[in-house]
Amino acid sequence: MSDPNQATDLELLTFKVADQEYSLDIMSVREIRGWTRTTPMPHAPDYMRGVINLRGTVLPVMDLARRLCLPVQETSDRNVIIVVNLGGTLTGLLVDAVSDIVAMTESDLQPPPEMASEPHMSVVRALTLIDDRMIRVLDLAAVVPATADEAA
């Protein structure tokens, strides 16, 4: 194993969804862009807002509040789309606002309590405290559909 004195640095992008704070590993974030109106796709899950044109690429955009079963708020110009890369597939996550980038170590993360009736349904992989605020670290693989077919 590695030297215990050498901490594994982890950078998290923190953001707000429905007045709650969440975060993602910064390594999965490709870019952050302003809200762009989406083109809805027929037969898409209700949490998929539609698609946008990202420099010639069709990018599916997921409403993260709806995906996490949180209260959905009216979309405004203050919303942002976090473009994430999961297994080579780009997906946009609609959030209320991006807060900060925070550095920490894996030891700063605590496993979430098992509260879901089905543990595999949990989308939070860890919890951490930042300035006395509890931040949820999302498991991107559990949030984003595995294939574009599921999203579209």
Largest sheet: 5 strands, mixed
Low-confidence stretches: 1-5, 148-152
Q: Could you tell me the number of beta strands?
A: 10
Describe the global form: globular
Order of helices and strands: EEEEEHEEEEEHH
Structural class: mainly beta
In spatial order, strands of the major sheet run 8-1-2-10-9
On the 0-100 scale, what is the average pLDDT?
88
- Share of β-strand residues: over 45%
Distance between the termini: 42 Å
> What Rg do the Cα atoms give?
16 Å
- DSSP helix fraction: under 10%
Number of DSSP helical runs? 3
Overview of this protein structure:
With 152 residues, the protein is mainly beta. The chain is 8% helix and 47% strand. The protein has helices at 64-67, 140-143, 148-151; strands at 9-17, 20-25, 29-34, 48-54, 57-63, 80-86, 89-95, 97-105, 124-130, 133-138. The strands form two sheets. It has a five-stranded mixed sheet with strand order 8-1-2-10-9. A hairpin with a 2-residue loop joins strand 9 and strand 10 (133-138). The chain is globular, with a radius of gyration of 16 Å. 22% of the residues are buried. Mean pLDDT is 88; it is low at 1-5 and 148-152.
Search tags:
152 residues, mainly beta, 5-stranded mixed beta sheet, 10 strands, 8% helix, globular, disordered N terminus, disordered C terminus
Q: Which helices and strands occur, and which strands form pairs?
A:
Layout: E1 9-17, E2 20-25, E3 29-34, E4 48-54, E5 57-63, H1 64-67, E6 80-86, E7 89-95, E8 97-105, E9 124-130, E10 133-138, H2 140-143, H3 148-151
Parallel strand pairs: 2-10, 5-7
Antiparallel strand pairs: 1-2, 1-8, 3-6, 4-5, 6-7, 9-10
